[in-house]
Amino acid sequence: MSQGSKKAYFELITGSVMFGLLGVFVDYLKAVPTGPMVFYKQLFGLLSLLIFIILTGKLSQIVPRRKKKYILLLGFINTCTIFSYFTCIKYTSFSVAILMLYTAPMYVTLLSPLVLKEKITRKSLVALILSLTGLLFIVDLGNVITGLSLGISMGNGYLIGIAAGILSGFSFGSEIVTIRYIKDDYSSVALLFWYTFIGVILLIPLSCGAPNPVIIDNMPMLIFFGIINTALAAVLYVSGISQIEAQKGSILALLEPVSGIFFDYTIVHTPLLMDTVIGCIFILFGAYIAVMEKSPKIFGKYFKVQV
């Protein structure tokens, strides 16, 4: 293995594991409401990205060119993905949330024929069925039915979290399809910068949703969260996966949910239920089949929504 290959593997593995730490950050910042947390995370991440782009001489890459309206759409979808993902974490657990996020290939399979005019293959259908089966294990239909019978007004947080998780998976899938549509017009760095920038603008109304003392007390960790998760992890991830064989890169990218569940269990001390483990196996296997089927180099490169 060459020195360049080792560097690429290191970048991809490090970026994936850094993304897996998101649940630890959210648990540490649990005093901060979801809206302000996401806003400051994206804001400090955006500033870090801008510094990186300037220092590496990539300013010319982020100049908007064609399909500008799809850049706006991508920013909106990405913001929806992040907000619903964080909401799911708040009401359930990081292990459940990240697995529901990784049902995205299921929605890509459904959306691709409509948007990208791609045919649904047998492998796509297998991936769809596996992801759906895993989702049913994680959702725990008995709990959901109980929540529905009691009514949402009873304050069933689990039900709210599951609904947010389903939305995050669908939104993530929509984001992947959108990126695949405009991938030839913008570099990965440009897409990362613009949908983060648009997200910061959209989240401004939610930035004041917490008392000033809470924000001030947690500001150092919010800054660190933005730098590590929004900027550094994303740059390492994209840099690494773009230099590695498609199939190997796609498989290694699944280190994110695996490491995320590990950190959730060992650091946050969230109980790991058997249904979650079974659901995890189904969803990750379905995701693996999906990334092997759907143009793996492109799909793998953009499979990580920046959250």
From TrEMBL:
Name the GO cellular-component terms. Answer: membrane
Residue stretches making up the EamA domain: 8-139, 160-291
Q: What Pfam families does this protein map onto?
A: EamA
Transmembrane regions listed in the UniProt entry:
9-26, 38-57, 69-87, 93-116, 128-152, 158-177, 189-207, 219-238, 250-267, 273-291
Q: Which UniProt keywords apply?
A: Membrane, Transmembrane, Transmembrane helix
The record's listing under SUPFAM superfamilies reads: Multidrug resistance efflux transporter EmrE (SSF103481)
Name the domain of life. Answer: Archaea
UniProt name for this protein: EamA family transporter
Upper classification of the source organism reads:
Archaea, Methanobacteriati, Methanobacteriota, Stenosarchaea group, Methanomicrobia
